[in-house]
Amino acid sequence: MSRLTLSHSHKSWEDWMMMALGGVLIVSMAWDPGVVSVWMAVNAIVVGFLVLTFAISEFELPERWVERVTFVLGLWAFLSPVLFGYFGFGTLWLVHMIIGAAVMAMAALELWQDDPTPRLPG
């Protein structure tokens, strides 16, 4: 008979990766300075700082709401090129979309791993 287990396997490498993604988002404005507007720069710095801050907080406060907020921040970073009108100009839009997708993927992984729903061991 199979035994059900709870998955509470939060891993610190995920938080380190999320901090790195936040840091890259903060400095991403240097990739394509010709396309940068004030709003793009402020957006990248604020979102990157928030991703970095929430990733640091995961070391002391591993709560599901933090991962949900981080997922939304990743979605915002992913959609920013479209919302701020720089989609398709230079390479900055691609960098922001890749980082946003990576932040969403990492947050989804953490949410999945920390899910208290019983699972069959695999």
Describe this structure in words.
The protein has one domain. It starts with 11 loop residues before the first helix and ends in a 9-residue tail after the last helix. The model is unreliable at 1-7 (pLDDT under 50). It is elongated, with a radius of gyration of 16 Å. The protein has helices at residues 12-27, 38-60, 64-83, 92-113. Helix content is 66%, strand content 0%. With 122 residues, the protein is mostly helical.
Q: Key features?
A:
elongated, 122 residues, mainly alpha
Question: What's the SSE blueprint?
Answer:
Elements: H1 12-27, H2 38-60, H3 64-83, H4 92-113
Helix pairs in contact: 1-2, 1-4, 2-3, 3-4
What is the number of helices?
A: 4
User: What is the makeup of the main sheet?
Assistant: none
Could you estimate the helical fraction of the residues in percent? 55-70%
Rg result:
16 Å
- Uncertain segments of ≥5 residues (pLDDT<50)? 1-7
Q: What structural category characterises the helix and strand content?
A: mainly alpha
Number of DSSP E strands: 0
Q: Ends: how far apart?
A: 13 Å
As for the number of domains, it is: 1
| Sequence of secondary-structure elements | HHHH
The general outline is elongated
Strand content: under 5%
The average pLDDT is 82
Summarize it:
The chain has about 120 residues and is mainly alpha-helical. The chain has 4 helices and no strands.
